[in-house]
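Continuing from the previous page of notes. For each protein in this section, the sequence appears first, followed by its structure tokens. Read the first protein now.
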Amino acid sequence: MKKLSLITALALSTISVSALASGFQGTANGGFTNGAQTVSRVADVKDFRDDQYIVLQGKIVKQLTGDEYLFRDASGEIVVEIDGEDWGGTQVGPNDEIRVFGEVDKSWRTDIDVHRVEKVQ
């Protein structure tokens, strides 16, 4: 019985690794890009619900803390949280126009939990 459990666990972990390698998780390996996503304005974030998916386009003005940045578009500024893996290897400076893909987070303040960053060409 222990051997069957071990074999099952090994098989499941192999399947999980295969799924990750196939590009369905994260952006480093590629994946699906929906070109029809609407870009929103910072000024409109107040009208979004908590955890609503959002795409913003603008610039990072400055780093506030380790993973928090001040993001600005033509309509205003908002704090965005970008974890290390969410950069996907993209290097960004204050003059670079970017798109951030993430979720609205309305906890003690409203900010954006970013899942992916890409430079606008």
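Done with the first. The second protein uses the same format. Note its length before scrolling.
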Amino acid sequence: MTTDPVAPSPVDAPPPTPPAGAPDLPDLPEAQPETAPPAAAPEAPSEATTEATPPARGPRRPRPVLLLVSGLVLGTVAGGGVGYAIQAKRPPTPLPPVQVALPSYPAGALDPVVAAAAAPTPLTIDGDLRKLLLTAPSGSTSWGDYPDTPSWITAGELAEHEGRTAAVFKQLNTRGFRRAVEIDWKQGDLKVRVSLIQYTADRAAEAAARTLGRTLEPFAPEANGGYEVDSRASYWAETTETFYGADAVAQRGTVVMEVKVFGTRPVSPEVVKDLAKRQWERLA
């Protein structure tokens, strides 16, 4: 029985014989099969890495608003360029002549009487108002710090005479207050104050309003105002001292006249009527 020769395997093959004369080499240790390093144990996830990782985003798409704005800008630029090119090729259009009426002048000389009649009516009362005030009678004395001679006063000083100082001050300055004069005196047990308050020419209605809303007795037939006498006592501001009052008011043009009398007893109507009538006559 014959068998075919079988080639020895690499393991069974004898080591090669070195050639004659070759130096002896030290025996090398047999090669050990390589082994993979042991896999490291998975680390416990820390608190910082326990959060969920957001999914990766895909490529961003162009925003519709950006595309729309870009289209509008490009359209405007293109339209403007086309319009300019069309307009540049057209011939210029001449403008119509300017038509303005030339000023006209009277042919003859101006009549001063006619011109004065056509001019706006001047103020009924103008000039120095202090000259129109009554003067203190002989034998009277000054009333505290108030002026005992005709004097100019401000809107603030005029408002201080009223109980509602802030409201009166605002009212005067928003309703055409122009100027005011005043005189005060004391005679016996009576204290008298006479004031003239003037408004601007276009606010004469505000002057008339100071005489409205009250039931007054007339002190003169031609005066558009009247007088009133208090039958009950009132208190002076921030004091316990009482007084009886009487006042008269009337309006002439843009000027309002006010006459006020204060007494420790009820004021006689004849006193306030006489003062009001004499002051009214000085405005006529």
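What the second structure shows: The two ends are 173 Å apart (CA to CA). Strands lie at 151-153, 177-187, 190-199, 225-229, 234-235, 242-252, 255-263. We return to this in next week's lecture.
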